[in-house]
Structure formats: structure tokens, C-alpha cells
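Morning. Coffee machine broken again, so started the prediction first thing and wrote up yesterday's gels while waiting. Chain of 662 residues, entered below exactly as on the submission form.
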Amino acid sequence: MNTSQSHINTVMNIVGRHATVPALADDNPIHRSWLRCYNDYGLNPSSRHRMQVESSGKLRERREQHARYLRTARAGMEQLYAQVADLDYVLMLADADGIALDFLGAQATDSPFRAGLVAGANWHEQTAGTNGIGTCLAERRTLTCHSSDHYYAGNLDLSCAATPLYDPEGELMGVLDLSTVTTTQSRGNQQLISRLTALYGRMIEDANFIRHFGNRWILKMSRNPALVDVNAEAMLAFDADGVIVGANSGARAQLQLTVEGVVRGSLVGHSLAAVFRNRAGDIWRLARGTEADDCGLLETWTDQAYYGTVRGPRRGTASTSTNSAPAVPGNVAELEALADNDPQMNQLISQAKRLASRPFNVLIQGETGTGKEVLAKALHQASPRAAKAFVAINCAALPESLIESELFGYQPGTFTGARSRGMVGLIQRADGGTLFLDEIGDMPLALQTRLLRVLSEGEVLPLGADKPIPLSLTVIAASHRKLREQIAAGQFREDLYYRLSGATLHLPPLRERQDRAYLIRRILRDEAGALGTSDWIAPQALELLLHYRWPGNIRELRNVLRYALSMAETRGIEIADLPAEVRDAAVNAALTVDASPAAATTSTVSDEDQNEVGGGEDQHLLSTLRSHHWVISEVARDLNLCRATIYRRMKRYGIVVPTQFC
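Came back before lunch.
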């Protein structure tokens, strides 16, 4: 039996074995790739792989999209290639679609593999099978794809080492790959090449990170003080308010955000104080450090220790300042993180920014679960009161028998069972800060009268006390009820309403928001970070969540994602991990939208016109569905058709979605 046939038999044996016990492939990225190639992409390992190469025009467009990144990366590529130039290696930089954008290496023509080791070659796994670039993109990890690791028998003489590259925002940008077409390299040698590739990949990432955040402050960290400035293990970019705006791969892997003692997810959008025990002034002194004092010891809340140094913004940029230190409190980062591209939320955030520094009481109206307390906390953080207390009270949750003593406090011996030293009420604890009254519409009328006196007089009288205590108080109230209707029904005091509603902010329900995908991904990162699991979600699962109506709004979304992550454990969320009721309701909603008369008229090309195109339409549709991993919305966009038309054609041609995508 020749080598090629033996390899094909090996691949088919592995695929067949894992078809019955898929879990066997969990610890082997090469076997996982073989399963994807066979089951998801329909590739035959015995077929002759024909390399796809982008046209010069399309390659030029791709390169223009990443022009700055390529300029930065080229310097690192040249340094890396100098290390292996005598070993007959080819160095490629591919984008997130697996297209090689840049190339270094001899242009020899004595090997059939050279057709693929050029700029413009498409090494995505679904077209090229298991290989360094494509499998690195799928697995998002540094890996070696040596000889018989490849899916196609025709690639057995190819050996690759690849490492993923991330952009400054943490999104997968592409792959750095070193490949050779000689058979002299052993797997052990290729492991060393893999480590070298990973090292230079991180150098390219970090150089691009520094370029991207050139107008921000950059904190470099290392456990070795001698290397902190030249070879940082982790880097954070932050603005003049001390808010983290960027984290490189090292920081995302090593540092953890701690909120109220609980480890959370994404670092971006939070203050440096949420990561480090050090005071803001300590880090600012690093930014002004002299040659003799430019490196300091930093301690995280998770008891990690680093030496750090701070690089200031480039001269001439907007953030450059020699006299202003970062200030942790009083920033708008939490407000800005509430939304992405939703017009209603963007208008609300713009209003909130202006109101935050004003001495106004604010009323937040919105359905249950829309995030009223989150908005209230963001308003507090954006206000001059950020360093003071934020006291939240759920007026619907406190028993009526206790609410008065909890709110106003009491003197010693006021009633049976009272604490011997008395108690400071929640209202008094909010002195100088922000008092958040959630579900204010459920407060009993008698207590509404006492609260009105507190707001109008600026003082609180604890139970059993003779002398009131003066307060400096700002109130943010919230309710899902229509308070004006309650006023008309005699259930809410009109004068209290006007005291509370110096300004009113209306939170839209989640089903009306255009940035649902942003919210899903942001909350998913937070929840995955808290659970210590992957925040990956299958495109098909994401599309179902986008179709769901979310009657419980953001609170329901968070619960659904938490459930799905628990079901998925560490592999990331698939459709099967979603709660059945959410999955079924979302499918029905998607079918309703796609089958509606309005959807059927959105296509710019009619069904009749398409039928005239003739032969091969079924194969073209099937190929397009596979290339987009059966995400119908993406297929419809690619073919310039509406989703209803895609579903009708699938039914006409008998095309059925594979089980793993259902």
C-alpha cells in the first residue's frame, strides 16, 4: 500500500471512529479538523486538492483594508524570515478568511506545493482541508500541522507552524505561518519552529497594539524588571480617566478583572482600580517616571505581582498632557459600554452624559429587566459623586413592616428586637453619593410622604430620633410601571413624582434595540469570564438569539447565556445548548419573518429571473450554504436574495440542513 492510500485509510478510520464517539476528538485539534473537513465541509481526503488563489484585484482590496497592519507586520516578518531563510521555509501572513496577504520566500517552481505558498492563496480549512493556516483559524491556537496531519493526501510533504494574530480590540485578525515543502524537517524540529512563530506573532501583535493606541497611555508589565520595557508580558492601554481601552493578548490571558471581589470578564471599559490594588496615583507616577524611577511594582486583586512602566501618548495627539493625571472616578466609560449602534440608546446615553454632572434627580422608566440599575450605576460613575456610596434599594422587595426602619434607620431601643446601638438607614448611607430607588412605584403611600419630606427638606429623621440629620442626596428612581397612570388612580403622589423626575430617561426593551448582537457578545464575555469558560458562540445559535423576542429583556438574556454556557461547559455555545423554549420561539419567529410578504419582496432579483439562469443552481446554492456554515442570513446577503427565497429553494432542491447546524 502506498503512502497516500495509507494516509487516506488513517483519516477515514479516525473519522469513522469519532462519528460514533465524537468526544474522542476533544483533545486532538488535528482529529477535530478532520471531522470538520469530512462532516461539515464534505471534503474527500482522496481528492486532489486544487489550490484557490485570489485574483490580483481582490488581493489588492484585501491588502488595502489592512494596509497599516501589514506595514507594521512586515518588519516582524522580515526579522523572523532572517532566522529561517537557509532552511527552505516560506513565511505567510493570512487574514481571518485564510487568504495569504503577504509572503516571504523563494519563488521556486520545482514543487507542486509552491502554488499554495504564495500571496493570494486561500488556505481556509473548508477549501484546503486540515493545514497550518486554516486549522489555526478554526482552533484559535498555535499549532503544528506536520506531514500526515494534513487532511489531503497530496499535502503529505508539507509541514506548517502557525500562530493566531489578534487585533488591538481582541478580535481574530489572521495567522502567521511558516511552511516548508522539504521532508527533512522532523516533527520535533517543527515544534521549535512553532515556538519561534508564536514568539514573532506576539511581537507583531504588540507592535500593532502600540501603534493603534499611540494616543493613549500604555502600561507595560513583566515579572522581570529588566525586561519590562523591551519585552512586556502584558500591556494595557488606558485613557486620561484611568479607564482601560485596550488589552493585548498577554493581558487578556494573564490579568483578571475583579468587581466587588468576584472575577469578571472583559478588562476593557473598566478602571485600572478594578485590576490593581495600587492607587491611581501610583500608576500616574510611573507615567511621569524619571530614568532612575520609571519602573514600579504592581499588585493585582488576584495576588499577581508585576513590574510596570507607562508609556505616554505620542506628541501632538489629543491625549498628550504633562500636567493631568488619570482619575479613576467620574468617567463615562460604563455609560458608553451600554450600547453600540442603537439610535434610541445612543440618544439616551448622550442625555445621560449631560445629566450626570448636574444636581438633578433622575427617573428611569422601562420594562422589567431592561437594565435600569445598570444605567443608574453608570450614571453614578459618570458623576462627581463616583467616589461616594451608591446605595440601591428595591422598594418592591423590602417587607412593608421593615421598609421604614431600613430606609430611615432608628435610634437604640426604638422597638422590640431593634439593635442595641440603633441602625443607620439606607438613605443616610447614601449621603454625598447616589440613592437608587428601584421599583419606586411599589412604595407604600405612607412612605412616599416621608420620602418626599427627605427630598424637600434635605434631611432624614431616624425612627425614635428628635433631631433630623442633614443630607446631600441625589436620587435615581426607576419603575416599570406607568407612574402617571398610578397618579391618576391615587396610588402615587404627584408631588413626589415631580421631585423624582427632574429628568426622565426611557430605556427601550431589548426586542426594539438594533445592537442586540453587541449586547449578546458583551454579556457572553462577562458570563464566560465568571464561569472560566469559552465565550465562543456558533453563528447559528447567535442568529436564533437575534430572532427571539426577549420578553424578560436583558435579565432574561443574561440568564439564557448563563444556562447555555453551563450546558456547553468549555467548548462554546451551540444551538443545542440553548433552552428549548427559547430555541423553539426563536425558530418560529425567524420563520414568521422570512415567510412574511414584506420579506418576500426584499430581493432585488426575482425567483422567475433566477430560474432563467438555469443549470447548476442547486449545486451553487449548496456550495454557498456550506461556505457560510449554513447561516441563512449570510447566504441571502451573498446571493442578493431574501431569506424566504433561500428557504424555498432549499425545499425545491431537497437541501436539508445538517444535524450539527440544526
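The first strand starts at residue 89 and ends at 95. Going to sketch it on the whiteboard this afternoon.
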